[in-house]
Amino acid sequence: MGAIGRGLVVLAGFAPDDSGETMAWMADKLWDLRLFADAGGRMNRSAREVGAALLIVSQFTLYGDASRGRRPSFTGAARPDVARALYDRFVELCRRGGEVAEGEFGAMMEVELVNDGPVTLQLER
């Protein structure tokens, strides 16, 4: 089971057309986004700069579409075998930037976090 101190919780979902290029862009973006406060209290420092970590949790339900009916459709999410390969590549690329912990792919998990902010962003390329 993954755990971090100060850092970012990354709920990662994958689409069928995601690529290695997309994974590399996302990993770099996560490490370099200026989301942490500087001495003046402005969001001006990156996870890399402050020595923060990433906790990566696979989350196919991010691709849930509830616009019709009463049961969400997940046809926009990558099939498990494709998503697993993308997830593994994404985690590998993120590890190049610093400390990374992860959840268990495809498992039911209880995720606890202390949201300091709050700042919640959706990143998509």
Low-confidence stretches: none
**What is the N-to-C order of secondary-structure elements (H for helix, E for strand)?**
EHEEHEHE
Query: For the residues shown, what is the average pLDDT?
Result: 92
Total strands: the figure is 5
Strand content: 15-25%
Characterization of the model:
By secondary structure, the chain is an alpha/beta fold. The chain has three helices and five strands, in the order βαββαβαβ. The strands form two sheets. Strands 1-4-5 form a three-stranded parallel sheet, with helices on one face. Strands 2-3 form a two-stranded antiparallel sheet. Helix 1 crosses helix 3. It is globular and about 50 Å long. The two termini are 29 Å apart. 22% of the residues are buried.
Strand and helix layout:
Layout: E1 7-12, H1 20-32, E2 34-37, E3 43-46, H2 47-50, E4 53-58, H3 80-95, E5 100-102
Parallel strand pairs: 1-4, 4-5
Antiparallel strand pairs: 2-3
